[in-house]
Amino acid sequence: MDSTYINEIRRQFPILNQQVYGKPLVYLDNAATTQKPLCVIDRERDYYLHENCNIHRGVHYLSQMATEAYENARRTVAAFIHAAAPHDIVFTRGTTESLNLLASSLGQLLIEENDKVLISAMEHHSNLVPWQQMLRQKKGQLLVCPMDDNGVLDLQRYETLLDEKPRIVSIAHISNTLGTINPIKEMIGMAHKHGIPVIVDGAQSIAHHYIDVQSLDCDFFVFSGHKMYAPMGIGGLYGKSDWLEKMPPYQFGGEMVDQVSFEATTFNKLPFKFEAGTPNVGAALGLESAVRFIESLDRNQIEAYESALLQRAVEQLSEIEGLRFIGQAAKRSGLVSFVIDGIHPYDLGTIIDKMGVAVRTGHHCAEPVMTRFGIPGTVRASFALYNTMEEVDVFVKAVKKAAAMLR
Ligand code: PLP
Whose C-alpha lies nearest to ligand 1, atom 5? Predict the structure, then answer.
C-alpha cells in the first residue's frame, strides 16, 4: 500500500506525531491498546458538548437524542460483525467484563458440580481466571488444549478433550502473546458436534480481520473497543439470542429490570437485561465512529499491509544472533514476540524506549504461556494500520543497538 495513503491515515492520529526523549515516537504497542483517530475523539467530545444525558429514562429532548444515538451505535456494531439482530449486542466495559459476565451468567446456567470448561494454553488471563474461579466454587475442572513449540493448538488433543464433555469452550481468536490465528471456525464446528457452546475472545482480531459471527457460528464473541481505535471503557459481548434469553442477569440495579417490588423483580428484555446501571454512552458513540472509520478503509488491503509489516519485522529480526521467536505459527496476525539469549526483555524494552520505540515487555497477561516456553517474558511489537515500514526499520535498528549494549 502506498505511503501517501498511510500518511493520510496517520494524520488522523495526532498522538503519533510527537517526540519522546527527543526522538520521533514509534508506537508498536497496539495489541495493548490502539491510538484513537480524530473522528473518535471528536465524537465523544461532541456528545459531552451537545448531547450528554442519561438514556432510556427521560422524556425530554436530550435524553431521547442520547438514547437514539446509543441504540444507533448498537445497530452499527451489530452490522459490523454481522450479528443477526442489534439486541444480540450487549455493551460492556470490554473483553474482560464480557468474559466475567459469561463465566458468571452462562456459568450459572450450565455448570453444575464437577463440570468442566475447556480453554486453550494460550489464553489471556481474562479468559482463564474467571473460569478458574467459577469452577472452584463448583468443584469443577478447567481443561486446557495444549499447543506445540510454534504456538499452534493441538487439534487432535482438542478433539479428545471435547470427548470429556466440557460444558463450555472458550478460545482466543488470535493469541495476544504469540500472534497465532486459531482455526476457530473449525474448532467451533468440532465443539458443536458435541453440543457444546463456544465463546470466541476476539480482543486481538476485531480491528484487523473481517468478523462474521453468523458465518463463524460462534455462540458468543467478545471484544474491547480500545483495541479497535475506540475509547477505553467500552466493548461488547455478542451472543446468540437463544442463549442470552436463557441466561440469568449478571448485575442487578436500574435499567435491567421490568417491574420491582419488595417481594420480587422481573427483568427487562434483551439486551437491557445485561446492562445494569448507567452505561458509558459517550464511549459507545466513539466506538460507533471507530467502526465507521474501519469500514471506510479498504480492509483487505489493510490486512495485507499489516501482514507485510509483520513479515518485514520478522525478516530483519531473524538476523539478530541469539534471537528466538516465541510463536511461529504459519497463520499469524500483526505481532511479533521474541527473546534474546542472555538479555532480559524488560532491559531491552527500557533501552529501546529511550530511542522512542514503544513495545510491550513481560508476560502480556498470559503467564502460563511463559511457563510453557520456560521464559520470564518476551518483547512484543504489535502493529496497526498507521505503522510504517520505516518504523519497522527504526524498531529493528533499536533492538540491534540495545542488544549490542546489553551483551
Ligand atoms: N483477551 C485478549 C486476547 C487480550 O489481548 C486482552 C487484552 O490484551 C484481553 C482479553 C483483555 O482485554 P481488556 O483489558 O480490554 O478487557
Answer: 176
